[in-house]
Amino acid sequence: MALMTGEQYIESIRKMNMEVYMFGEKIENPVDNPILRPSLNSVRMTYDLALDPQYKDLMTVVSPYTGEVVNRFTHIHQSTEDLKNKVKMQRLCGQKTAACFQRCVGMDAFNAVFSTSFDIDKAYGTHYHENFKTFLNYCATNDLVVDGAMTDPKGDRSKAPHAQEDPDMYLHVVERREDGIVVRGAKAHQTGATNSHEIIIMPTISMGPDDKDYAVSFAVPMDTKGIFMIVGRQSCDTRKLEGGTMDVGNSEFGGMEALIVFDDVFVPNDRIFMNGETEFAGGLVERFAGYHRQSYGGCKVGVGDVLIGAAAVAAEYNGVAKASAVKDKIIEMTHLNETLYCCGIACSSEGTQTESGNYMIDLLLANVCKQNVTRFPYEIARLAEDIAGGLMVTAPSEKDFRDEKIGKYVEKYLQGTSEVSTENRLRILRLIENLTLGTAAVGYRTESMHGAGSPQAQRIMISRQGNLGYKKKLAKAIAHIEE
Ligand code: SF4
Ligand code: FE
């Protein structure tokens, strides 16, 4: 099968029978729901760009396994060039949506499970890698969106999975059958859940021998019996129900997350990629987290490009674009944003081949990348708010602006420079509000902090990978210290 068009993708999701809940109600038609639709549109962009002649070289690649042209989001990285192109593709998608376009979690899960399933087979003579490759080629050939699900609810953080008071706080096997396993548990903060065809489950932490039932990785269709999703709310989400396009800031695109519950879900044997091999759980987490920390050096940079552009437009509309202090703030925003991009490209350029054949990023540099992402978007957002001015949070609603009686006052008193309409001024301010405080702030701000692991998780990896012993030796050699 060829690549899907954006429209075909939307219709393919419409045909699925997912169980979705939001605001205490079952959502019968997530595809046309006004709160969820913008997030679907963001994923759609990954299809539209793949068919656009201008971007197809970046967005698509020939599969080394089937010889077909596939979307890069379903690709196993074959070189450092592939790793760099992944980051460039993510920056592009961020620029075109100004939101989280969700499809990267599946791509990162593909690449992490690819090498891990190979390693497990080598140690135990299992057939996980073949299972995984069959699943991968099915997703690539049919151009599917896959949710990469790692984060368990975790309950009491001081206790291992098997030691939790409630055994379901980490997803686990509750029954082993001849033809497969039955699992129970949940995965939290799941990006793109309602917009995915399939879901890959991975363990969320390193595990010991007693955690056997929790060391499990597999894939199932998102509408498998027993799976249901509870959509997370976002700041200002109900503005999408008001009908206009101004107050939402970005009326076309968005992101979404959900709590996904696995209420005794059956997984057939040929969809299992790990089942009890506890010593491989930590490595899988490290690889997935590493790839996703690289990802942020692309997607957040693309969204940052839009925010920098919005701040510059707001400055023009306010008549202050030529002020040297404003120009310097834009330079600082650009510097910070490009620093993140440098990190994404650097950890890709320094990537190496794994034994399974795919390419892994440089883990130290990927963790440095994500650590910077926990800081720089906050500073970029601060500067954008500084330039925008307080009106971005005090401006009246679109309904007031359009009102017959008071609209003309909103128009008159909120005018900036005379060349620019009040409506356009309000639109750009609402976009900045959306990115820094509204629905997109989930992806641009808080996800920059906690997505792909909280800051401390990167600091642990930086301390492990930093090779301090070697650095101490260097210092002693220069200082002529002999011990
Ligand atoms: Fe992709 Fe970024 Fe969203 Fe993660 S946060 S899924 S890397 S767009
Ligand atoms: Fe993320």
Quick structural gist:
The protein is α+β, with helices and mostly antiparallel strands and 483 residues long. It has helices at residues 6-14, 37-48, 56-59, 80-97, 104-124, 128-141, 281-318, 324-349, 363-373, 376-388, 391-394, 398-402, 407-413, 422-436, 441-450, 455-465, 468-478; strands spanning 20-22, 25-26, 60-62, 69-71, 146-149, 172-177, 180-191, 198-201, 216-221, 227-231, 257-268, 272-275, 352-353, 359-360.
List the helices and strands and how they pair.
Blueprint: H1 6-14, E1 20-22, E2 25-26, H2 37-48, H3 56-59, E3 60-62, E4 69-71, H4 80-97, H5 104-124, H6 128-141, E5 146-149, E6 172-177, E7 180-191, E8 198-201, E9 216-221, E10 227-231, E11 257-268, E12 272-275, H7 281-318, H8 324-349, E13 352-353, E14 359-360, H9 363-373, H10 376-388, H11 391-394, H12 398-402, H13 407-413, H14 422-436, H15 441-450, H16 455-465, H17 468-478
Parallel strand pairs: 1-10, 5-8
Antiparallel strand pairs: 1-2, 3-4, 6-7, 7-11, 8-9, 9-12, 10-11, 13-14
Helix pairs in contact: 1-2, 4-7, 4-8, 5-6, 5-7, 7-8, 7-9, 7-10, 7-14, 8-9, 8-10, 9-16, 10-14
